[in-house]
Amino acid sequence: MNDRAALDLLVSRGPLTRTRIGELTGLSKPTASQLLARLEAAGLVRTTGNETGRPGPSAQLYEINPAAAHIAALAVDQLGVTAAVADITGQVLGEERAGSDAFAGAHGRRSRDAPGRTAQLVARAVDGALAQAGLARERLHGAVIGTPGALDPRTGRLRYAPHLPDWHARALKEELAEALGMPVTLENDVNLAAVAEQYDGAAQGFDDFVLVWADRGVGAALVLGGRLLRGATGGAGEIGYMPLPGAPLARGGARDAARPDAGGGFQRLVGAASVIQLGRKRGSSDVRTVTEALAHGAVRAEVARRLATGLAAVVAVVDPQLIVLSGEVARSGGEALRALVEEEFTGLALPRPALRLSHLDGNPILLGALRTALAAARDAVFQTG
Questions:
Q1: How close are the terminal C-alpha atoms of the chain, in Å?
Q2: Is residue 198's pLDDT more than 90?
Q3: Going by C-beta distance under 8 Å and a sequence separation of 6 or more, which residues neighbour residue 3?
């Protein structure tokens, strides 16, 4: 327990002296010295110079040994896979994008070699990141892959992601683990974005919040009591299918809702494709992007009204402390859109949670996969008893 406490302190606070570690853990100097010697012998910590700027003899600083373990984090979308490789401290050492048309088979049909092709695509992205990092696959402790849809905890199969036909193999997780030669965890992409917000973003300090992802697809991650709510089939938070006034019912289910120009539900109101269509109707026929659409005040006000209506339904059921808006629609609308949604909330939702925009730099799904992989690696590597 003392070893883990010291390691966690070094992760969160950076280099520390033996004296400071003793103060923060309540350990005596001799015990702290023995602890650090043990961790150094195990290859988990290393010395990194001396503390300066204080009177008296300079004290040696200790830090986590970055080479103690390495992990891979991946984010999947319709156009390919992005992979990042990091050391145990969280420092990203390499990142690679592997694009492919493997997800875009004719009419969504899978080819016979789809599972192998998917594994090859993932391996190509990981190997590219490893090459940048100057590492071999054997140095990786594990990988976390964020993908649209959700894994059914009963079967292990991907659900709610018909637009990724090559990812529906029953043994996909095992095939990926075999291709990479390491343990693999598959996780819903929006859930991982929520993890990123908990660690580094707008949800720090909140145990009850909802992350609403409005992008090409629309979904939510529900965090209650500090834990992700997954649901009986892994489909908790699939609010893109939620029936709302102003949108046709998504009677076609997952197949129909996969197309942004068809189906119904919340995604038909606030998905990126729908926002662009709204921009062409109310703004200009030249609108090509979500940003261009939301630059028009009338479009922004209508999207805010639609978002507020859907969020009110979520709040009525979940009652979170906070809602975080993320995805392309939220980023493009910015603070102006957030303020309008908050204004629309007046009298619409009771209770009224705080409403924040995501301000994370980079890909939040990739960052969440990184944080999840690091937590698992540290739990395994930091076991010294």
A1: 8
A2: yes
A3: 35, 38, 39, 382, 384, 385
The average pLDDT across 283-308 equals 94
Mean pLDDT for 146-150 is 86
Closest alpha carbon to 384 in 22, 33, 42: 42
List of residues 6+ apart from 150 with CB closer than 8 A:
158, 159, 160, 161, 188, 230, 231, 233, 234, 235, 236, 238
Better pLDDT: 284 or 36: 36
In this prediction, residue 219 has a pLDDT band, given cuts at 50, 70 and 90, of very high
Closest CA to 255 of 329, 149, 173, 156: 149
CB atoms within 10 A of CB 145: 28
Residue 165: name the closest of 106, 252, 250 by CA: 106
Asked if 49 contacts 65 with a C-beta cutoff of 8 angstroms, the reply is: no
The number of C-alpha atoms within 13 Å of 377 and in the hemisphere containing its C-beta is 31
The secondary structure of residue 384, as a DSSP letter, is -
Long-range contacts of 119-123 (CB under 8 A, 24+ apart): 119/175, 119/176, 119/178, 119/179, 119/180, 120/179, 121/80, 121/81, 122/74, 122/81, 122/83, 122/98, 122/176, 122/179, 122/180, 123/179, 123/180
In this predicted structure, the answer to whether residue 110 has a pLDDT above a threshold of 70 is no
